[in-house]
């Protein structure tokens, strides 16, 4: 994505890996030098390309955690 | 998004709500009449418009839950 500057400040965890080596990861990422946000996104090997994803605040992650803990997974 | 057919089969939980009424939701959604997937996404009020989001399998949700439970949120 041209023009978007980002820095992965912390790699928190890998949710899955596809047969082509793309990984779905939860990271802490700073976009355009702003304060870092939690980011759940697909990445090509070595983070060479990024796929679709969403950013979340700490409060959103907490709420998501509570929702997942209430599910019968 | 023109041409994409979807059905929200289950509304699992709301992660957050913005000042404009958009909500970040975890739902079980069938896309183009295929088997339903878990979907984390922003929605306008009444699900009138959809924003960015990602779909996940049950296995991915489990792993994400474990990652979140290991974090000091």
Automatic annotation (TrEMBL), chains A, B:
Source taxon at top rank: Bacteria
Transcriptional coactivator p15 (PC4) C-terminal domain sequence ranges: 19-67
InterPro entries named in the record: PC4-like, PC4_C
An MF annotation (GO) of this entry: DNA binding
Lineage, opening ranks: Bacteria, Bacillati, Bacillota, Clostridia, Peptostreptococcales
GO biological process: regulation of DNA-templated transcription
Organism encoding this protein: Peptoclostridium litorale DSM 5388
This protein's name: Transcriptional coactivator p15 (PC4) C-terminal domain-containing protein
Any Pfam family the entry gives: PC4
């Amino acid at each position: 994505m041209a023009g978007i500057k980002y820095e992965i400040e912390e790699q928190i965890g890998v949710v899955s890996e596809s047969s082509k080596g793309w990984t779905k990861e939860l990271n802490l990422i700073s976009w355009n030098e702003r304060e870092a946000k939690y980011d759940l996104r697909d990445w090509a090997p070595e983070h060479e390309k990024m796929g679709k994803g969403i950013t979340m605040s700490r409060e959103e992650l907490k709420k998501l955690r509570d929702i997942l803990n209430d599910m019968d997974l």
